[in-house]
């Protein structure tokens, strides 16, 4: 080989190396989420982005703050365009994640799930809402999303009021009702409740889940059989009974969930059945008494689910970078960060959590998910069920709807959709 040939090869290699460097430096990693900036998860994810930048100094990171409504309304259009990001937060469920999955707009993550060890972080319970079949129905099919947080409904309780009345945290439904009765005999309405919005269904479904087994939950959430109304009938009868005994105020029909939360946080009611989304508000506003949470005593299931998920669009230009970011979000350090900010982390180490709210969230979520006890939400299976549940429960509390009528209304709406599957 003469010197000219050597020079040509050397020059060619230099050009290739220069092109490679330029290509790496030219990469832009696009990431979207809709969590508000001051939420525990958004703060933790922002720190994950900082770690990502340190790991990839030659990559330009472009973060865009979106809104839930933006992606809810235009998700399919965005993901089916060249404007899709490399990774984005997206809502779980058949009507959202399932829809875009059925349209082939998301990248299957099964290979990365095992290769990157995400299967060591997320158990089978925590990935039920990550899988969707060709019809967009959750529970089977490829993994198309990775959850990084959880949420659940619990009983918020006023520790000071419990101690002052010699009451221990109930561990059975009978003990819970005895607690209600003890407070009522002291002249205290024990349950803060609101039927104007989603708070209506949380108590109803919580009580229904005391009567539910695996088959019932899977059939109900998966539209696999006509509705067996026995759990809902039991729940409706309990609520009607509790209203009659004064455990729940009839004024609840005029309250939203936030109003009922204010009744609890002001110290007027010792208990409030609602979700972990109240934690931040309670941590900031309750200054006059001690409070905590306990899981409503059911056989297995609790109202709740994994939270929104990170998904990689089919058209993403930098999928490996997207996987690296998800790695960081699922890391023990970032999960601990989220929990220490009061969030519901999926895989935080309880021993590393100093924030009392975050520590309790981690303990309870692990308690629920480790037994496969996420019961999801009652309005998920049927379009329009959210409004129907609110109307029916409001009627139950104000006396215009009987438990039998509530069960019949739920069955008709459910069976009509189930029969059309």
TrEMBL record:
- Which locations, inside or outside the cell, does it occupy? Periplasm
Q: Which UniProt keywords apply?
A: Periplasm, Signal
Question: Which branch of life, at top level?
Answer: Bacteria
Q: Per UniProt, what is one Pfam family of this protein?
A: SBP_bac_1
Q: Secretion signal: which residues? A: 1-24
Answer whether the UniProt record assigns the keyword Signal to this protein: yes
**Keyword Signal on this protein?**
yes
May I have one GO cellular component term? periplasmic space
Name the family. Answer: Belongs to the bacterial solute-binding protein 1 family.
Q: Please report the name of this protein according to its UniProt entry.
A: Putative sugar ABC transporter, substrate-binding protein
